[in-house]
Hints:
By secondary structure, this protein is mostly helical. The chain has one domain: MetI-like (MetI-like fold). It is built from 14 helices and no strands. It is elongated and about 75 Å long. The chain starts with a helix and ends in a 6-residue tail after the last helix. The relative contact order is 0.16. Keywords: Cell membrane, Membrane, Transmembrane, Transmembrane helix, Transport. Belongs to the binding-protein-dependent transport system permease family. InterPro entries: BP-dependent_transpt_permease, MetI-like, MetI-like_sf, OppC_N. It is found in: Cell membrane. This is Peptide/nickel transport system permease protein.
Amino acid sequence: MTAVVTDLTPRQRTWTAFRRNPLGLASAAILLALAVIALCAPLIAPFPEGYGEDTFQPPSAEHWFGTDDIGQDVFAQVIWGTRVSMAVGLSASVLAIVIGLVVGICAAYFRRLDTPLGVLVDLSLSLPVLPLMILVAALAGPSVRTLVVVIALFSWPEVARVVRSSAMAIVPMPFVSAAKVIGGSAFWIVRKHLVPGVVPVVGVSVVLTTSRAVLAEAGLSFLGLGDPNSWSWGTILHKAQQSGALASAWWTTLFPSLAILLLVLSTTLLSVAYNDARNHRSAS
């Protein structure tokens, strides 16, 4: 048995260790279910629009999550909000990862750029993120695209710092020096050696950045800076606050809040489980 475990590749050892973590598997299943809900939203519930006669109805067999102040079904709002919230979270995460990956690798490989890029990252991390997000989103105007760009612009510094630390350990490796000796270009070395070396760290960053982006989107939308023509979990909370339903109709805020909590908790547990599996060392 020991010989079999020893013969496994690092990727196989990571997957074997990850499968032994029930919280990690459950978190992955929840995120997969949310992704399916986001993709299949039109098949699950009709788009919430217009007005209904049953206003402020509590959860029932007809309206699973109740209705709001204009009679719209809260279940449909949460289902369609899953699509927008996850789309904003993933898009902002991918954009932040790309920026952070480029900055982190450039700082690690091109030593002359390390100091100025390090100052830029430290300056970005020292800024008051939430007030600046609110200011930029308010000036740019409410839209899904604006939220994605604003969230990504304030999320990449943490990714860049993590990528730089990981890449700094790869640059002095013998295979990188050998690639330089045989005339490999900087772009080829970065693409063949540095990027594959930091991919595991980037994988964790994608999950964590997505959860932070979802939280940021919910906060900005709750403040009225989201797209008024689309539904997100933060938009549902904003409309509930505007209608005065926060105290009188608990179901209008409970279910979108639970959806946000579920996604953030699942992404956090998944990243922890993956990181533990990646750093797993089997007993000899």
